[in-house]
Amino acid sequence: MSVKTKSAAGNALFRKSVLANTVAAAMVLSSSQAIAQEQTEAEAIDDVIVVTAQKRSQNVMKVPVTVDTVSAETIKESGSILLSDVDKFIPGFDFSDSNMTQAGVTMRGVSSPNISVGGDPSSATFFDNVYMPRAAQNVLFSDMQRIEVLKGPQGTLFGKNAAMGVVNMVPNAPQEEFDAFVKGTFGTDNLMRLEGMVNFSLTDNIYLRANVLTNEQDGFIDNITRADWNEGTKTWDLGARDHNAARVAIKWDVSDRTNVQVSYDWDELEQAPPMAVGFSEYAYKGGSDPFGSKQENDVRKGVESRDMYAVTFKLNHEFNDQWSMMFVSSYRDWDTVNREDEDGTANITRYLDTSNNEDSDIFYNELQINYNTDRLNYVGGITYSKEDVFQETEIFLTADTVARLVTGELNGQVRGEVGNQVEQGLVEAGLVDAFEGDLDAAAAYAACLQQGAPDPTVCIGQISFDDVVDETYAASGLEMDHMWNSDEWSDVLVALTGDSSLTPEFVAATGDLTYMMASAMFNEPLIFGPSFSTGPTGMFWSENFLNSGEFTSYGIYSDFDFQLTDAWNVFAGLRYSKDEKDFTWEILETPFAQIIPGVSNVLFAPLEKTYASDSWDKVTGRIGTGYQLNDDHMVFASFATGYKAGGYDSLNPITDDNGNEPFEPEESANLEIGYKGVFADSVRITAAFYHTELDDRQRNIESKPPGQAQALPTVVNEDLVIDGIELGVIWDITDTMTFGVVTDYRENEVDTEEFYNSSGDLIPAMKIDNESNTSYTLTFDWMPDLGFGDTKLHIDYVFVENERGFFPGTPDWERNLPNYFDDREDLNARASWMNSSGSLEIGIWGKNLLDNRYIEGAGGRTASVLGTPFGRVNRGLESGVDIKYTF
User: Fold this and answer.
1) DSSP state at residue 510
2) pLDDT at residue 135 in the model
3) Number of Cβ atoms within 10 Å of the Cβ of 105
4) Do residues 557 and 541 make contact, with C-beta atoms less than 8 angstroms apart?
5) Whole-angstrom Cα distance, residue 779 to residue 793?
6) Which tens digit of pLDDT belongs to each residue from 757-773?
7) How many Cα atoms within 13 Å fall on the side-chain side of residue 50?
8) pLDDT digits over 365-423, tens only?
9) How confident is the model at residue 264 (pLDDT cuts 50, 70, 90)?
10) How much is the pLDDT for 55?
11) 112-118 mean pLDDT
């Protein structure tokens, strides 16, 4: 193809509607069409999208399985570089990337735990036919052909069983023709995004394609804290981004029937850690303005980083006109660090940070065999993968924070002593005997008697013994905010020892001496003095979890699609999956144990390396049919089952005495009925109605059970039933103007098991019915003829109904967050111009044009223990320009 011809083709592509490429190219592929994407091309023939795969062409509006697709044109027009940028174009699909290394797919309202290396995602993600584990899912889009999303259980369309769906990212493969471009995007908060691609022939039958993408942007909230311990290291502003990716692929057409491709992918991330906007009185300005331009995050050496690479080998071979095969083998390795603030303050006595560090790799292999005739489509294959994982969860506190935790324990002991004194007073007054040992009645009578009530018995039942103790303790002035406060510490010492010489001045002048005395008196080594305060060179109190695992997965599958008549086809498939997991836990003792004799962990008891091993297997499948009513309308129905292996919770070890067990595998069943139609040659409609039952859904919560010092991410199982509708409509108003809508509505019914929430409250098992949620995206595309070059306007409006509060156990502090329970609205737009040769394109764009601000997530990990809840907020209005030159 000549450069001139290619440019003309580029103009034709430029003139196509974005939503038409998204929904009309919503490739509802049969199994045979999903197995070799590098051989698949989408062509516009008489305004109808045709998908060609393995010598078989099908009109997308006549294939009876729903697979939504986001095209390269849509990716460009929306300025998308991540899955979270394109989820708005696909009903029932959401991708959360607030933590880039712990991102997660949500399919039809079902998300997966994303903190533990011991689990798998409910929805599998693939890149270039290769399965991507949890921490590897969030890669930059660079030179992408399309993104496919299959909703519902999947087993025979892709090489990994999945309970809720599959996301498949398809990069462009090397081609014979020369192609190249450079592109720059510049915008708000010093956004600078540079991208380049080149494709050329090395020989007559060997082709190379290489691309690179770099994305940098400043934070949008100034971090005004420059903690002493960060001297010499970078202190990030909240929301700063720095992400780079590159890919090189070489394809060899060995013959007309055989080709080989080898590719190398590289992804480097080093940016600000997930933000911690403080909601507590100890945060910046008392947490009163979460959307302000300033915050305080004092996390030591905070960063979110990932170094990742992958090498992939693919072989495609056609034995004859009916039989073909594909083999793919890939090795992917990644190292991550995610050190983040967990308190949202700069208060040295309320400091806690965590770092999730992973060093993992996966070896993935798949062999597929395909058979295609005019009537029969068959795909079968085997998969094998082995994943080695290592996770270190570091928990850091300042010694000042540990002293605060010890203060709380001491306050409890002092209150207990006050309670003993109150009880002794009641005994000596004869009230305990008078009320036959009923302390509540005795205390209530005494309280009313002291207040001079004419009939003290009226207080019985109104006031408890604990109420009287609390009031007496509060009046004593002995409750300490922090034991290193010399005034408070002096009061307690004098009260407990009766030695009035222990004045605040004496306490301050003697440093650690009085604390050493109290430590010996109470036989409590955790009572230590202010000389241990964490400073620029001081030690941090750490308690670290170590996890390792070896996961092996096997699969074998077969799927048949048979055309009974010209109008009627049936399909069916089965898959056998088996997963084996070996896992370990180890909790290290704090280094302070080597400095202060007798000291041990305050949050989690040390644990020697502990081992667990288990396996799960399942046979799943699908069956369905499609019927073509006429050339413009068809209906289809399917029933499918899916599975996700059980696993292990990184932060909840399985030991002989704690009763923990592996969490159960997820098992899903989905009934779906669909319709596709074209009206008046200008309106295309796709609709799906589904009923999904998900047993033992694995859900991640923040939980603080009794005896645990702080809330931790914990996996619980629950049962879920979902009924929903998904709809896509494209209206070609004129040849140059298109309007579209994609929307979904679902109702949920959930049976929960009992659990402790982040505040330590026991939430009983319960059933919640008829919780509903809806969202929709409206798009408008217009290509006005201005007489020079080609111009285009794209607008999309996104509405997402709030579904927070659906789950029980939401703490009170979270219920009062501003905008947290609001429905979400986003308005985005891009206007662009391309010259007549198609070589130069200039665009101006805006995101979140309504400048709506939301609290996108809330964390209660330190809410109960330090009183410091926190969360993250979205970036406001963004705007910028992009320039692309095609060679």
Assistant:
1) T
2) 77
3) 28
4) no
5) 10
6) 777 788 888 887 767 78
7) 10
8) 999 999 999 899 999 999 999 999 999 999 999 999 999 999 998 999 889 989 999 99
9) very high
10) 29
11) 76
Q: Which amino acid makes up residue 811?
A: P
* Percentages of the chain per state (helix, strand, coil), in multiples of 5: 20, 50, 35
pLDDT, tens digit, 9 for 90 and up, residues 180-203: 999 999 999 999 999 999 999 999
Comparing CA positions, the residue from 774, 646, 665, 666 lying closest to residue 720 is 666
Question: What is the number of residues in the chain?
Answer: 887
β-bridge partners, 547? 391, 585
Quick one: which H or E segment has residue 421? Answer: helix 399-428
What's the token pair of residue 257? 């029937």
Strand 294-295, strand 222-223: pairing: parallel
Q: pTM above 0.85?
A: yes
| CB neighbours of residue 452 within 10 Å | 7
Neighbours of 428 (CB within 10 A): 9
CB count, 10 Å around CB of 358?
Answer: 23
Listed residue (743, 756, 695, 747) closest to 723, CA to CA = 747
pLDDT confidence band for 865 (50 / 70 / 90) = confident
**Rounded Cα distance, 51 and 165, in Å:** 21
Q: Which DSSP string corresponds to 773-824?
A: EEEEEEEEEE----SSSEEEEEEEEEEE---TT-SS---HHHHT-TTTTS-E
Structure tokens at 31: 């199994």
- How high is the pLDDT of residue 364? 96
pLDDT, the chain, mean: 87
Q: Is 758 exposed, middle or buried (0-12, 13-18, 19+ CB in 10 A)?
A: buried
Once rounded to an integer, what is the mean pLDDT over residues 794-805? 88
Paired tokens of 452 = 């001079």
CA pair distance 282, 279, nearest whole angstrom = 8
Nearest alpha-carbon partner for 694 in 168, 162, 115, 148 = 162
Percent of the chain with pLDDT over 90: 61
Per the listing, tokens 């306007």 go with: 793
Name the 3-class secondary structure at 807: coil
Both structure tokens of 349: 């006595």
**26-65 residues labelled b (16+ CB within 10 A) or e (exposed):** bbbbbbbbbbbbbbbebeeeeeebbbebbeeebbbbbbbb
Q: Which residue has the tokens 């979890």?
A: 545
Q: Is the dihedral of CA 502, 508, 509, 510 positive or negative?
A: positive
Asked if residue 550 lies in contact with residue 582, where contact means CB atoms within 8 angstroms, the answer is yes
